[in-house]
Amino acid sequence: MHLFDIVRSRAHWERLPAAKKKIHRVAAESRSNSQPTTIGNCFGRLSILLALVWLSFCFQAVPVSGQDKAHRIKKIEARVQRLQADPACRDDVYGLIVVKQALASIKEGSGGIGACLVDETTGKVIAMGRNRQYKPWFRSDLHAEMDLLTRYEDWMRKKGGRETAKDLRAGPHLILVSSVEPCPMCLTRIINAGIKKMVYVIPDETGGMVSRMDQLPPFWKKRALRCNYRQAACSPEIQQIANDLFNFSMRTWGLKKKMEAQ
Ligand SMILES: [Zn+2]
């Protein structure tokens, strides 16, 4: 509208009687309430529609469906199958064994952590374990290291014990290998089992206890004095897989909880 027209219509409005002004106001309100279709409105609706389409794509990208989980497992399984132990990394052979156990845990629906027990004198793996916390039913004690030690101790008992029939504690020649730094529960079990040597593929900065040994109760700290627990010397590829397997389950659990909370 031209400035002259604006001034003229304003002057015209001022001259109108109050009754007519009221009629114009009611008519204007009625027009605005009826929301006639304009280019602006169309554009607004189109924007909302596009935003909804974009959001639907975003939600599809979140890995929560069973089908998507199966696809992610296949991808990580293919990576594990391609892994080779690097002779330059002295713990790679056992690192590979425990990540394979961690993969088996994921496939079963539990946490992505694996463990094994090695006889240092022969280099042979004498027991294997993995996280079985969620399948076939919930067992809060069945972390990978706990599962491993329970299986080993049961096996020793069936065998009739090793050195003595009464105390089945492991000898100094055993090395426990875990794909992730043990938590407080597992660490005290490892100490109690008499395992003097233990290595883990990746540290767990928020849940690991080996890096916090100085915070153990005095009794356990004393018992762990002659123990050698450290991070394994594994290749970056094996460390990466161990990390991805560990976070795979954590992320799935976190997403599940988030979805349930909504
Ligand atoms: Zn644990």
Give the helix tally.
9
CATH-defined topology of the domain at 70-160 and 168-251: Cytidine Deaminase, domain 2
Strand content: 5-15%
Largest sheet: 5 strands, mixed
Helix content class: 40-55%
Q: How widely separated are the two ends?
A: 51 Å
Level-2 CATH architecture of the domain at 70-160 and 168-251: 3-Layer(aba) Sandwich
Mean pLDDT: 80
Would you report the number of β strands? 5
Supply the CATH superfamily name of the domain at 70-160 and 168-251: Cytidine Deaminase, domain 2
Unreliable stretches (pLDDT < 50, length at least 5) are 1-7, 30-40, 55-63
The CATH class of the domain at 70-160 and 168-251 is: Alpha Beta
Description:
The chain has 262 residues and is α/β, with parallel strands linked by helices. Helices cover 55% and strands 11% of the residues. Strands 2-1-3-4-5 form a five-stranded mixed sheet. Strand 4 (197-202), helix 8 and strand 5 (228-231) form a beta-alpha-beta unit. It is elongated and about 110 Å long. The structure holds zinc ion. Zinc ion binds at residues 143, 145, 182-183, 185-186. Residues 143, 145, 182-183, 185-186 line the site of zinc ion.
